[in-house]
Design a protein that fits this description.
single chain, mainly alpha, elongated, Ferritin
Length: about 160
């Protein structure tokens, strides 16, 4: 039984390219989620309470984000990646090795937050060419959140 065509004003080629880009964004976001959750569990030191709480807020927000990104991929007519092996191939973020110090956790999270921003920003030419405003809105919101989070984390390293 053939599926109904998707006729939302974005051609098949553009939808596929955008979905592939969003799949990379999903992989980066999920990898960041997993790293942040890991650091929440394993952080130690004088900033424990602050970082434990902050990391929980961050991974909770990321959990919602992965759902929004995956649902946008589905809206465009493609399957969202959902396995560790798929994410490992698609992500631009390196997994932490062992349990870093609290300061190293912050530094790694800044780099990862910025990587997500770069991945999101790289989608703009495709999205703009296709007049895909819903995806543009989604990635703009993601960029704002990740840029702000990177700034807040960097602020912890000053002084």
């Amino acid at each position: 039984m053939p599926t109904m065509p998707i006729e939302i004003g974005i051609d098949e080629t553009s939808r596929k390219a955008i979905a592939e880009g969003l799949s990379r964004l999903l992989a980066d976001t999920y990898t960041l989620y997993l790293t942040t959750h890991n650091f929440h569990w394993n952080v130690t030191g004088p900033m424990f309470q602050t970082l434990h709480t902050m990391f929980e807020q961050q991974y909770t927000e990321l959990a919602t984000a992965v759902d929004e990104i995956a649902e946008r991929i589905r809206t465009l007519g493609y399957a969202a990646p959902g396995t560790y092996s798929q994410y490992a191939k698609l992500t631009s973020i390196e997994e932490p090795d062992g349990v870093p110090s609290a300061k190293e956790m912050i530094e790694q999270l800044v780099k990862a937050q910025e990587a997500v921003v770069r991945t999101a920003r790289s989608l703009f030419p495709l999205v703009e060419d296709a007049n895909d405003e819903p995806t543009a809105d989604l990635i703009t919101q993601r960029m704002q959140i990740h840029e702000k989070t990177a700034w807040m984390l960097r602020s912890l390293l000053e002084g």
